[in-house]
């Protein structure tokens, strides 16, 4: 977190990328009044009349008050933003803003605006400033604090600020602004995770285990290899009672597991493969699914690894536990579909480090084209030859873009010929229901 003290040098606020146009818009009324004042003084000089001089003086006093006062109001004020540094996608996010008055006199009617890139990100809206609220009165040397609740719309790493202080009080002729970046300046929003009850996982050969180790349901089987004396920590369900009675001591059955489950998640991070925009694009849904699968695997003690090739390479080796899951979640929060590596090449990389029997979960964002993505199918065939089991998530192109017919999709047919279990994913699908039928 950044130093909570506001920097002394104000930061320019030009959120719309057009500082001149923004300045003219904020000072339009003042410029009009300045023109009227000039006209009034010109008329008073040409005609020596007291009334014209009074009108010109009134215009000048109004202009001075309307322009100078707002600048005085925001001067000697500082704003500080605080809040969580991490949030979950789709969840409410509370930010607290504190306004400090470093002057001796009170300040009135000051508006606070902020640059929060995650607001509107779900719909792919352009970056804009967000009005946080208005402070009616800040005593001299005092502070005012208020909170605002926003939604963490889309996962990512966001740079926040600066917090802007703006005022056009009392006449609304001109708006004075200053910006200071203090307090919370960055925010990580993690992908939304949905619970998964079970997956159709198959087995991976492993080392001989002791009786306490349990294989995941449906993950494979184990083979009896002998009896031995009971040791502390052995699973009581593996006690062989007839042999224990004959030998007058507890004997347990020893097994060699033929299979235990493991996962390999291979994201397609190639630029141009993403279908749709915003939080409901195919890539964003894929990231959400990958995070949920990683949660399922680490929560059930299953080794899981993650691969992807954006501008920032994504390569996390197999592992279990909460620390491993947090590492994967941190990576999935910032991954983007901005790479130039073909998806087939990523699948070949997964095959190079494959453990026989591993379940490879592939994400297919490619539009349906004649030939069905032969390079991708070839890489998946290589995985099958090396002993992988395939679970393929096929993002239905027409549901995300409306440009391609699902019935003409040759890629899906090729996946099924390879023996992959194909799960179609459409825009707006209830992922919880899709993975937990």
Short description:
With 437 residues, this protein is of the alpha/beta class. The chain folds into three domains: 19-190, Immunoglobulins (Immunoglobulin-like); 208-258, no CATH class; 263-435, von Willebrand factor, type A domain (Rossmann fold).
Task: Walk me through this protein's architecture.
The chain has 437 residues and is of the alpha/beta class. The chain has 3 domains: 172 residues, Immunoglobulin-like (Sandwich), CATH 2.60.40; 51 residues, no CATH class; 173 residues, Rossmann fold (3-Layer(aba) Sandwich). Helices cover 30% and strands 27% of the residues. The chain contains 11 helices and 18 strands. The strands form 5 sheets. It has a 6-stranded mixed sheet, with helices on both faces. A hairpin with a 3-residue loop joins β14 and β15. The longest helix is centred in the first third of the chain and has 25 residues. It is elongated. The N terminus is likely disordered.
Question: Which helices and strands, and how do they pair?
Answer:
Layout: H1 19-26, H2 28-46, H3 50-74, E1 77-82, E2 86-88, E3 92-101, E4 107-115, E5 129-138, E6 143-151, E7 156-159, E8 163-167, E9 176-180, E10 186-190, E11 222-229, H4 241-247, E12 251-257, E13 263-266, H5 282-299, E14 304-309, E15 313-319, H6 321-334, H7 343-352, E16 359-364, H8 374-385, E17 389-395, H9 397-400, H10 410-417, E18 421-425, H11 431-435
Parallel strand pairs: 2-10, 13-14, 13-16, 16-17, 17-18
Antiparallel strand pairs: 1-3, 3-6, 4-5, 4-8, 7-10, 8-9, 11-12, 14-15
Keywords: Membrane, Transmembrane, Transmembrane helix
Transmembrane segments: 51-74
Domain DUF58: 227-339
